[in-house]
Amino acid sequence: MKLLLLGSGGYHPSAQRHTACLMLPEVGVVLDAGTGMFRLPEHLATDELDIFITHAHLDHVIGLTYLLGLLHDRGMRRVTVHGTEGKLAAVREHLFAEPVFPIGPRFEMRPLDETVPLPLGGTLGWFRLDHPGGSIGYRLDWPGHSLAYVTDTTATADAPYIERIRSVDLLAHECYFSDDQAELARQSGHSCASAVAEVAQAAEVGRLVLTHIDPSAVSADSLGLESMQKIFPAIELGCDGMEIEF
Predict the structure, then answer these.
(1) H helices of the chain, where?
(2) What is the residue extent of each domain of the chain?
(3) Residue 6 to residue 19: CA distance in whole angstroms
(4) How confident is the model at residue 73, as a pLDDT?
(5) pLDDT tens sequence across 77-122
């Protein structure tokens, strides 16, 4: 199974990173619909597409407006956007309000069930996260493969969601701030470096890839990656275009 990072940053796009958008091409699954969605067509391998949004902040949903052009003449049989009922309502009423985007969405919006079946015998489950306005995380399981996606929350070594992500092969977790910005992380509902590594260690995951990274970060080690690896060695810094087998 392959995870492709179409967008690895948060808040706003930069020359190096577009905002949150992760894709599993072989099963037609996309996690969040940030500005990285513009890269979707070159990686489409299915005629059905399931997009799972974590919440309705613009850096995670603005790419839904791109679908009108991206999927034109692609012969898609079905495109479904999944999320909690309140967040889908916000997308429908605000992002696709006529004065903002006058052409209605050309896809179905479906509130999440407790579990969602996925192609190739997989299942998806979700769990609530602590973030201003509310957010959720996802766990995806197939025979022999498992992935968790956690973004827009403040990581702690005893976070309630740790049990929901325990022992996954790959954890994609936001890491917006360095340790010296821990207070700002708490105020804004985001995560800083060491706490993310502590979550991975506590959850006994196989590997950790860092996503939703500060777009203004100018160096690869702006998060203090070396210090994080002393807590949990199997860490990779996510970047746009990265492909990860798990």
Answers:
(1) 58-61, 67-70, 85-90, 162-165, 182-188, 193-203, 225-231
(2) 2-245
(3) 8
(4) 87
(5) 999 999 999 999 999 999 999 999 999 888 999 999 999 999 999 9
Higher local confidence (pLDDT), 220 or 178 = 178
Structure token digits, residue 147: 């992935």
State the pLDDT at residue 106: 87
Can you tell me the distance from the alpha carbon of 181 to that of 157, in angstroms, rounded to the nearest whole number?
17
CB atoms within 10 A of CB 114: 6
CA angle 128, 154, 196 (to 5 degrees): 110
d(CA 105, CA 19): 21
Gap between the terminal Cα atoms of the chain: 6
SS3 category, 142:
strand
- The angle subtended at Cα 34 by Cα 167 and Cα 86, nearest 5°, is 80
Total-model pTM: 0.97
Q: What gap in Å lies between CA 37 and CA 163, rounded to an integer?
A: 30
Task: Tell which CATH architecture fits domain 2-245.
Answer: 4-Layer Sandwich (3.60)
Residue 234 C-beta-side C-alpha neighbours within 13 Å? 15
